[in-house]
Amino acid sequence: MSDEYSEKQLSAILATVDAWSEAFAKSPAFARLSDSHQRKARAITEFFAKYTYEYLLLSPCEWDCAAVEECCAEILPRKVSAETSFFEAIAPVLSAFFTFLEDQSLLLNGRVLAEALEHLGDEIVTNAEDRSNWGPAKHFVMAAHEAGVDIRDPGALEAFMMKFNVRQAIRSSFASAMPSSWSFAPAQGSKQRESRAPLERYAPCPCGSGKKYKFCCQRNG
After folding, report:
1. Closest-CA residue to 98 (of 73, 123, 116, 77)
2. Which end of the chain is more exposed for a tag (fewer CB within 10 A), N or C?
3. Phi, psi at residue 62, to the nearest 5°?
4. pLDDT, tens digit, for every residue of 75-117?
């Protein structure tokens, strides 16, 4: 697959996985999932397909164990705003889904991918609950949810956003007003680079290429 992101390619991937999910929902493997896991299955398969392409540039035929681990244990906990029960469902749902795909000759390495999930369940949940792993959008949505805001209500969400932005501005002002003597100095002997690489490797690359940092300067550096 090309290293260049394509909305057309993403749409094709999502259409394929949606058809697979529909067939999966009619299978005995799906019936063996708990009711809670069944309700979350469509969203989980869609998120997995979407983010393995958006952040790893992989189509279904390129899914491998490394992609499963990175997407499930790192990307989904960082990007998806959901309750703990959603993340508890990821490993069992995808394991059943991958196995089904191999049984239907739709994914040659389905069982291998399912096995890669066996040890990831606890890690997925732990990472999802660790706020230091959350991206900015997830921080905002989860803060709204914790404040009792109905995130499906645009008006309520917009009103909360205004309050949220005010709080963030106050915190930023307070931080900038702190005495310079409070700031932390770099460790002795360390050298500061002229341009600091972004902490988020999936962020747009600062070189302006339009690619994500992971697939541009991080790879070339």
Report:
1. 116
2. C
3. -105, 0
4. 999 988 888 999 999 999 999 999 999 999 999 999 999 999 9
Distance CA 168, CA 5 (A): 33
Burial class (CB in 10 A: 0-12, 13-18, 19+), 32: exposed
46-55: average pLDDT: 96
User: Tokens 């392409």 — which residue?
Assistant: 53
CA dihedral 205, 210, 214, 217 (to 10 degrees): -60
Q: For 157-194, what is each residue's pLDDT tens digit?
A: 777 677 767 766 666 665 556 555 544 444 444 444 33
Report how far residue 216's alpha carbon sits from residue 9's, in angstroms, rounded to the nearest whole number: 20
Q: Write down the residue that tokens 């709080």 correspond to.
A: 167
Q: What is the amino acid identity at position 80? A: V
The single residue listed with the structure tokens 């009619």 is 26
> Among 134, 34, 154, which Cα is nearest to 82's?
134
- To the question of pTM greater than 0.85 for the whole model, the response is no
In single-letter form, the type of residue at position 144 comes to A
Instruction: Count CB-CB contacts under 10 A for residue 89.
Output: 23
Please give the backbone phi and psi of residue 212, each rounded to the nearest 5 degrees, phi first: -75, 150
